[in-house]
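Human: I hope this is not a bother. Would you mind checking the protein record under this note? Thank you for your patience.
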Amino acid sequence: MGRSVQRIGKVAFGVVVGLAIAGCVSDSQSNRVARSFAPPVAYAPPREVVQPIPAPRRAVLAPAALTTLVPSLTRDFGGKVGIAVMSIDDGWTVESNGDVKLPQQSVSKLWVAMTVLDLRDQGKLTLDDPYTVRKDDLTLFHQPIAALVKDDGYKTTVGELLQRALTQSDNTANDCLLRLAGGPTVVRAFLAKKGIADIRFGPGERLLQSFTAGLEWKPQYSTGRAFEAARAKIPASTRMDAFERYVADPPDGAAPRAIVTALARLKKGELLSASSTQYLMSTMESSHTGKERLRGAVPEGWLFGHKTGTGQDFSGRTAGYNDVGFLIAPNGKAYAIAVMIGDSPKTIPQRQQLMQAVVLGVVTNHHW
């Protein structure tokens, strides 16, 4: 009897200890023990989940008629001509001499405006900031603001200077903005910062025009027609040499393809803030210059904003006759266009017809 009780006690003690030990076993060990006594389960290999690969976006090709038209226009026109058309939405580009750097002339006012608006985006200036234009600021050729500059100057704002530079192509207004921004090196730095390649920015209106004419700039050239009078005294051979040097390697040269690429990036909001982008595009739409250039063929219901550029004439030739801008269809599809006539003896109506033919080609081949 005593030995039986002892055996029962030992068994009970073993159960208790076993339970205690079981309490210290990890969950994973317990699961292994449970599985060892579980009935066998049929093995099923894991299913391979295949994620569907999205079909690549089908590339949209440029209209065949347009790819034929653009090269034929440059070939038949003669002189140095570059044309580029880019579909901002579909991504295709049609060009002829699109990588040739041609004189920009006042097209370069776009890069000054962008630099100023970039400074605005950085909080370094506002469009309402005051600016006084003085007689020392006057430049040459087209400068309507000069009539407003008296002995005490003309009080204006950064915004008004931008409007005058872009919509009237006022050279003095543009040069004031250029000085306000910090000079040509700052504009070049902006282009580099934004990754805008194949676009040069020259030394400013005074030095650029003097270089083209074979003159050295003098302050007295900014009043009246003093510049034209000094230029007329230069020997024809000297002027021709200067003209040829400028056309061959313009310090303000830009490739048409680079310009339409920059305009497309502007439209997409990649260069400036939304506010500054809208400001610049709406200002370009209200431009008063070049009504018979690209704008002359824009149909009713389409939006168009642009910047023109016109160089000096000599011996029946013009060094730079340009128009660049964006064209937006009623359905919202947008195109960037650059037509740059770097050197041509063609008449002004012939140049305008060339530009209008490009717009008509885009409109005719637009897909609704």
Summary: The radius of gyration is 35 Å. Residues 214 and 285 are 35 Å apart (CA to CA).
